[in-house]
Design a protein that fits this description.
Pfam family, one (chains A, B, C, D): MIP
Region (Disordered) (chains A, B, C, D): 1-23
Order of helices and strands of chain A: HHHHHHHHHHHHH
Number of domains of chain A: 1
Number of strands of chain A: 0
Subcellular location (chains A, B, C, D): Membrane
Oligomer: homotetramer
Shape of chain A: globular
Strand content of chain A: under 5%
CATH class of chain A: Mainly Alpha
InterPro entries (chains A, B, C, D): Aquaporin-like, MIP, MIP/Aquaporin, MIP_CS
Helix content of chain A: 55-70%
Distance between the termini of chain A: 18 Å
Catalytic activity (chains A, B, C, D): H2O(in) = H2O(out); glycerol(in) = glycerol(out)
CATH architecture of chain A: Up-down Bundle
Largest interface: A-B, 48 and 57 residues
Chain lengths: 313, 313, 313, 313
């Protein structure tokens, strides 16, 4: 999960590639060169892809089978293990799977800023593609559930809405403030616990290579404890990518307008939440290298990120 | 989980801090000095904070959604993973998260007595704050459930009582003795198993860095096996902190008077239970350094704890 | 879990005890000498004690709360984590918690025969005591459920029977052969998988210190896959101990006569099952030291176990 | 799980066998020689055996008890832990338990081609035998459920069909394309994640000896997210072996003809799915030795597999 590790490994890897036999050959192949360059975006793409395959898949199965093939608890399970397996698949890039997590790593863990846009794009694309495949897989079931091959509806506009399979729609009783607050809190917990699981080498805490397993529990927990009100999007890629796909799939502009243009909240709130969560952890617990532990609380670095980033990589 | 580790790490840390670059600078900052001093209370505060966020959060979600977004089993899950993630977050201080556990560590594991009040205070505060945030997050849902923005009721006084989200209220059929006994037994299991999971270096037993994961199972188990009668408070901080918050939030004096002033039982019973559980483990299983394995069963030490504590730290 | 480890550790321990300070003192204390001798029985006692506390506890909670505070799945969870925590608690003795497992270890893993009766006794006593405490804890709830403080009934003799909390009673449609077969199969799986989890040092397989965690899954699995027909006693201590307790508690002689004297099946079948399971594993998978891999398939050893046992210890 | 490991260990083992005492003797015994030769088929046989015992067992218990002794979630649990325990039992051979996984290892991980037929046969036989024992164990319950000792029916031909205990039958609304696609997708996820869990030594990713535990989550996930439409056969051995057994047990030719000869889909689709999943992983993530990283994308090797295989072993 640590961006440091990941960026290091990618350094470590480049040299050996050239000396040992098969790789040397493969270096002459166009594909291997492309791969070399795009390893991290690929890893983020597939990590998020796996996350959404399991996450949207479990929602589809539970909803479309009318809770016969699962329950709300299975949904928490599905998202939890989606994260776990996604992080294993995306290990090469640190397995962020979430732009807000990448951002927090840039701010608090010296993750190179220039990588942020690439990561975010790869994550959104991965979620976008996965949700399309989930749709293809459950198309017949959706037709049956919606009552017709060309009927696609959004929660709040019909009782057999299936758009909730792909992205989150808030509970009806929620106020706008409540929606934002719920996403914010969940994101704070997310980032605080991710940092806590990565732990603090100076204190010998953290979950080491249990981390992906513990992330299962973390996401299960967020789903079981804060998943009702807004469906815990807490991730721009996870929510926006599939929402876009559902729009293209013909769910209509309601995917954007539903609940008074709710769609932007799970895109924006997680960034604030993850930054605040990281700030809390670094301010009160973390003793390693963090802007919080440097003079001016590292604010100078925020002013001139580019130079800093160059130094890192 | 071991207090020994934690106290040691905090010693180990002080020296290096001063020599390496960024830290040296940061030592000049007021905040870093404060942090240095308050690391352990902070860790306990946030550990308990995380525990209650997930624990009270899952009860809120299950209760307020009328079991649609979870079941009793999810509640056991929520408390279990709350402990697990809380212990990871509070690793720097040993992750007690429970005054009774801290006490047992003072008595059986040479944890410095002078730290007990600080730990207990940090734990209660952490639980207090977390429950407030859970309330803020579920306010709208509570209004709907209670049937009005200003209606806040306690179990036994209405059918839509929501005070049970924050702290425990016993089942109606329980006798006073039964209530105490149930909390006592659960606390005995708690402490006995915590010591068993920490294991015995001389016997090469214990769960090592699985411990937090196993604590998930331990708490799930206590909830699934002994959670019905009294809601397994088994923790002064977990029960009193949120109860106080719910009082301030306007649930009325019933939070104290309910079930004939039940509130003091989950505050007192855990101390007896954890001491007895630790006594059992050290008497029959533990072979390491413990007052039980010293002459007079370490009673002399209990008489003059202060001097002893000084020696430790 | 391995008896070899356990017996070794107990050897390893004896010498150091005498040299280091506190222990040296404690050696002069009567209690420490007793403990030294009885360490393994104590460990088995408390391991089985923990197992039954959680196992019988979860059945009590689910049954008495009419499935409101749990479901059949929680019962599988409870037994699974009871085993897991029991094995951690009983690590000093190898954590058999089951006479049939101890027997299989004597036959296939050179566990000293002379220890068998002591282990079996400690296991039965542990289960016996734990079930008594579970009864004490749920007494009021049992009174409510049975409909009176002096009514205690056995499955098949009333609709509100609570004897099933303590020990197993088969489903009505089962034939005698079916009952035995079901217990036999479950025990075969039990022993085969325990040996598989301990693994084979020569093949580098096995779960290492994951073993107790995997045992959770193993018991959850036996409960979820073969737990319906006979309630998977698969353990003389687990079934006979609590049955005896329930008899003393006034459930009447029906605890023995129910289902045509079913009670002896979970006492006898596990021994056959575990021996056969161990035989399968050692015959087809195991490459380490096992009578199967010695001439005469180790039958000679079975003839003169005592001498062999002496050699071991 | 890696075929490389397994084949290596089997090499590593042969020499030492001959030098140390007990083994030297046993080498003179016919059985030990047979075992030596057949170690890997035996491991695959018992690994698949354990998988089906738990997998078919849980379906039987949940179905025959009318969801009283479990739910759809328990079924996902049962298959998941069946895989986990099966992989531990079959560790000596790499624990493939699935011909499609073995094939993918041949193509992408240099697993000797000549071992493929032996593995596949052992896997089918293991599943075949296990399903027979599950039938024997639940015979009385099946009689009750079907309504007679000689009535055995297949889903779609009666409301009390029990053939679904042994092998998979698709949901009625599925089109032929949908059936194939669903099995294909699930197999892609299966192989991609297995490779991801084995990880990439050059990137320091993967789950190490957590792998079997993570496989539990992987299979739980496939069951919870893609298990509804076709019952996730995704394994020739798991589906064909028990189907054959159910045919011999008198479920009639409907086991083949049901859903318009569905039976061949879970036999064929997994091979395509696993190959594609492995291709994806090696093309975009894997940096180790793989045909994808060699010139001609290793196509030459596919042309002359035999020579290559000889080189390997």
């Amino acid at each position: 999960m640590t961006s440091k590790e990941s960026s290091h490994t990618s350094e470590k890897l480049s040299p050996p590639i050239t000396d040992d036999g098969p790789e040397q050959l493969s270096d002459r192949l166009a594909w291997s060169r492309i791969r070399q360059t795009l390893r991290e975006p690929f890893a983020e793409f597939f990590g998020t892809f796996i996350l959404i395959m399991f996450g949207d898949g479990v929602v589809a199965q539970v909803m479309l089978s009318d809770d016969q093939k699962g329950s709300y608890q299975s949904i928490s399970w599905g998202w939890g293990l989606g994260v776990m397996l996604g992080v294993y698949s995306g290990g090469a890039s640190g397995g962020h799977l979430n732009p807000a997590v990448t951002l927090a790593n840039c701010v608090f863990r010296k993750f190179p800023w220039r990588k942020f846009p690439i990561y975010a794009l790869a994550q959104v694309l991965g979620a976008f593609c996965a949700s399309g495949i989930v749709y293809a897989n459950y198309k017949s079931a959706i037709d049956v559930y919606e009552g017709g091959a060309h009927i696609r509806t959004v929660p709040g506009y019909s009782d057999t809405a299936t758009a909730g399979i792909f992205c989150t729609y808030p509970a009806v009783f929620m106020t706008r403030t409540g929606q934002f607050f719920s996403e914010f809190i969940a994101s704070v917990l997310l980032m605080f616990c991710i940092f806590a699981l990565q732990g603090d080498s100076r204190l010998g805490t953290g979950a080491g290579n249990f981390t992906p397993l513990c992330l299962f529990f973390l996401f299960f927990g967020i789903g079981a404890c804060f998943g009702w009100e807004t469906g815990y999007g807490i991730n721009l890629a996870r929510d926006f990518g599939p929402r876009l796909m559902s729009f293209f799939l013909g769910y209509g502009k309601e995917v954007w307008t539903a609940s008074n243009y709710y769609f932007w909240i799970p895109m924006v709130a997680p960034f604030f939440g993850c930054l605040f969560g990281g700030l809390l952890y670094d301010t009160f617990i973390f003793t390693g290298e963090s802007p919080i532990n440097t003079p001016w609380m590292g604010l100078r670095r925020l002013v001139v990120p580019d130079r800093k980033a160059k130094v890192d990589s």
